[in-house]
Amino acid sequence: MTSVKINAKIKSSINQKIMSHQSVTQQITPKYIDSLQEKISDIKEQHDGKILILTHANPDGDAIGSAYGLYLGFKSLGLTPTVSCIDEVPTAFKFVDTKDTFTQTPNFNDFKNIVFVDCGDKKLTRFDKNHPEILSDQKFKINIDHHPSNDNFGDLNLVITNASSAAEIVYYLWKKMGVEMNSALATSLLLGIYTDTGGFVHQNTTPDSYTAAAELVELGGSVSKISQNVFRSNDLKQLKLWGKVLEELHVTDEGAAIVGVHKDDYLSLGATRQDLGGVIDLINSMPEVQYSVMLSEDEKGNVKASLRTRKDDVNVKAIAEKFGGGGHVKAAGFTVPQGHLKKEVKWKIVTDA
Amino acid sequence: MTSVKINAKIKSSINQKIMSHQSVTQQITPKYIDSLQEKISDIKEQHDGKILILTHANPDGDAIGSAYGLYLGFKSLGLTPTVSCIDEVPTAFKFVDTKDTFTQTPNFNDFKNIVFVDCGDKKLTRFDKNHPEILSDQKFKINIDHHPSNDNFGDLNLVITNASSAAEIVYYLWKKMGVEMNSALATSLLLGIYTDTGGFVHQNTTPDSYTAAAELVELGGSVSKISQNVFRSNDLKQLKLWGKVLEELHVTDEGAAIVGVHKDDYLSLGATRQDLGGVIDLINSMPEVQYSVMLSEDEKGNVKASLRTRKDDVNVKAIAEKFGGGGHVKAAGFTVPQGHLKKEVKWKIVTDA
Question: I need a surface site. Which of B101, B177, B306, B351 has the fewest CB within 10 A?
Answer without folding.
Answer: B351
